[in-house]
Design a protein that fits this description.
By secondary structure, the chain is of the alpha+beta class. The protein has a single domain, classed as Sufe protein. Chain: A (Alpha-Beta Complex), CATH 3.90.1010.10. The radius of gyration is 14 Å and the shape is globular.
């Protein structure tokens, strides 16, 4: 078994225990709920758009520490970006986590999540918020 310090880095523990942007966003433009049936994680992503950029991205969850940390880091990263930039980043991130591409995430604030790839059973935990964000933009009826 890989070293658990690679799974629970200081940043993951901090964001998991003290998540940023957790809580419902009222008057949001998009929202979606994600569910991981393997472990029972549930997450709702809220997106408020301002003109061409994301004004605010938030979440509520009943999930594990890794999923909460991932959502917290994601919301910080995506807020302020254009819809296209945020969508592209989510796609690239999930492809990297699944081993479908080998890009570098250094400098994006989420590089600590890359260690989770060594724990295949936790990849769905870390990608759940990102896939739910994409569902909010694609599948959700704007509210």
């Amino acid at each position: 078994m890989e070293n658990l310090t690679e799974l629970y880095t200081e940043i993951i523990l901090d964001h998991g225990r003290n998540p940023r942007n957790e809580g419902e966003i009222f008057q949001c433009r998009f929202q979606a709920e994600g569910f991981n049936p393997l472990c029972g994680d549930r997450i709702t992503i809220f997106v408020r758009q301002k003109l061409e950029s994301l004004d605010e991205v938030g979440f509520s969850s009943d999930s594990c520490l890794i999923s909460r940390a991932s959502a917290s880091l994601m919301t910080q990263l995506l807020a302020g970006n254009s819809m296209e930039e945020a969508e592209d980043y989510c796609r690239v991130f999930t492809e990297i986590m699944r081993g479908e591409r080998d890009d570098n995430l250094e400098g994006h604030g989420v590089a600590d999540l890359l260690g989770i790839r060594k724990f295949p059973t936790r990849i769905k935990c870390v990608t759940l918020p990102w896939l739910t964000f994409l569902a909010a933009l694609k599948d959700s009826i704007p509210i």
